[in-house]
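Section 3.1: Structural characterization of target chains.
Under the original work plan, the team committed to producing a structural model for every single-chain target entering the pipeline before any wet-lab resources were allocated. The record below documents one such target. The sequence was received from the expression subgroup and is listed exactly as submitted; it comprises 821 residues.
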Amino acid sequence: MARRSALSIRIVEGRNLPAKDITGSSDPYCIVKIDNEAIIRTATVWKTLSPFWGEEYEVQLQPTFHSISIYVMDEDALSRDDVIGKVCITRDMLAEHPKGYSGWMSLSEVDPDEEVQGEIHLRVEVLGSQGSRRLLRCTVLEARDLARKDRNGASDPFVRLRYNGKVQESTVVKKSCYPRWNETFEFELAEPAGEKLCVEVWDWDLVGRNDFLGKVVFSVQGLEAAGQEEGWFGLRPDKSKPREDEHRSSLGSLQLQVRLRDETVLPSHCYQPLVQLLCQEVKSGRQDGQVHLVTLLDETTTAECRQEVAVNLVKLFLGQGLVKEFLDLLFELELAKPCEPNTLFRSNSLASKSMESFLKVTGMPYLHAILGPTITRVFEEKKYVELDPGKVEIKDVGCSGLHRVQTEGEVIEQGRQHLQSYLGELLDAIIKSAPACPPVIRTAFRQLFRRVGERFPQHQHVKFVAVTSFLCLRFFSPAIMTPKLFHLRETHADARTSRTLLLLAKAVQMVGNMEPAAGRAKETWLAPLLPALQQGIAQMKDFISRLVGTEEEEEEGEGGPLGPPAVVVKEGPLFVHKTRGKGPLPAAAKKLHFCLTGEALSFGKSPGAERSGAIALADILAAEKVEEKSFGSSHVMQVVYVGAGGQQETAYLQCKCVNELNQWLSALRKVCVNNPRVLRAYHPGVFRGDKWSCCHQKERTGLGCDRTRHGVTLQDWSDPLDPAAEAQRLFHHLQGLRGTLREKYWELLEPEGAPNGARGEGTPLPEGLSRLFGVLGDLEGCHRLEGRPGSCEADVRGPVQPPPGPGGVGVPVTWGPRRWQ
């Protein structure tokens, strides 16, 4: 059994942001921190106060995290980036919105006294009996992951204890965010013991005021009852100061979609009855006069969660080798409904969403190969492309000859030539790609092509449009318009490039519609492109004929990146920092090309060069971040592994940005998830001289001072299948539809206007639906045996005290009432 949290975050857009540059604008981007650890950085949107990002992420976490903070920053080329404001969302807030929160949230100022992080290890006890002199004793042991307040990337922490008007302080530990004190403090217990013990952590500064690092507050009355309390306690901000809420409105706001899904994934054998039932339903196919379970699922699933259900089903049937049969069943059921040729598959039905999800899950490498060169060319050339006379800006083009400014017609003609060149290059790549298209995608389109042709024998062009409605309108065009969201580019396009991409996507859509005249009727200014579009339609028809024309037998389970594990999980250049030891990595600092596969992390001088060394996955013990002060960069990771001589070695590898850092960490943690020797603790610093830079321990092989975070990963389209997780999510969805499924079955079974006499209580349900309810009941019982109800949405309110272990982030002593900030 695995208990985990999946956090889905979509950063949509911002509005009314303040200007931070002298030009009266800003260059905003967002940093997402989970418990004050940077996990995600969006792309920068240049020169705007109303940026649109539209970026989506899903992070797998241990279920002990506390809050999400989203910082809006202004990028500056010559100085430190400015902080515009932030939004903070606690775990409690998300628990109050089990279906997710969606809406605008006002940015608040960043208060230094609220920017706290880390945990402190304390032992607090009451000594002495009633009637004698009693003492309140607090032993301050150590702290970890404290906020970095000094320029050297560390802090100089000390502890201040307050009780009954008296104050005591610990010694200062210089240059450490992982200090160890082991000091004991005693206070005479007041009568009655109504006061609270406040343990504060501060950063000592020689010049200026000390910086607040967080605090923990204990109820002495509670301590008297318990006698003693010991453990790691999450540091909390100082809420005693009044906030100036009037400044919030001037900082603008963010539109966010955030959902927390707490999951208890049972052992895979528990889901076998559900998986077998769904597979049997797919194999049985459509039968006249009966209501299929897939039809019931389609009719009862709301639009807001249909996309998620479609992804779960596609991945489940990919793992079972039945994705072709599943899609063919959806096509058949959709075509059995009353439909018109010109609106076929244009709705967001389960069939449309499943096919769209299927293409994204299995076709991303194919998409990158087709669109990549043209998208790169558009970004690099930055040509001015405009066909709409109402939007032409002569000044953006300049002079075509000496002392002569181009006319509007010349600008449009030049834009048409550029756009036609991009479209021609793109269509040429598509036409040549039929042999390279994944076989499982070709089979799915062949099935669709045949089914539509049988349904509309008098409209043979419809079967071509059915294919392009998915391939062009739902796959190619969205990726052209927003290449960042399909991982084709690392940055968003500027305004000029974005307009070119929009026009190119529109042209591809018109080719996919197979009727360019219809598009020209809506936007007459597209008329100059009509000859190119007509030629593109002929080319597209020829491509589709070749794509679906050859009968091929695909092996069961073929599914692109999510079927058999990909040979290369991740690769790219990384800078190797100088290390000690006799491991395979060089001792001198240099840049190497690294390649992570299902067997090893290997490296060489360049992508095509011979591999000069490798670290076997079975020897990797941890993949974690490194403190910024260690190498002067916040984008360094460490790979702890067992060397050839059996000794523990560490490789320090620098990435170019926070996103690349977290992607590498995520990939390494996923491929090493089953390693039996993973570490539970590690050192986030480096061993220099005679001690660790993080906690100042002098034992090189001593126990680490922070917990490893094996469970923190980013979801990626190339992830291997997780059948148990997909089955658990489908179980949760179906469990919430039990009553609706029953009602919808009788509604679909009875003809319109017929009496409801057949719905008597004694009327038996069909075998498939009856078996489904039985399977859901059994799974619900399994969840009860594991100590929680069948619902995946956990009630996480209330105090939590997790045991030490990998991936934990600490907890506060008490959880007070929360509100949206």
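Confidence is low (pLDDT under 50) at residues 552-566, 789-821.
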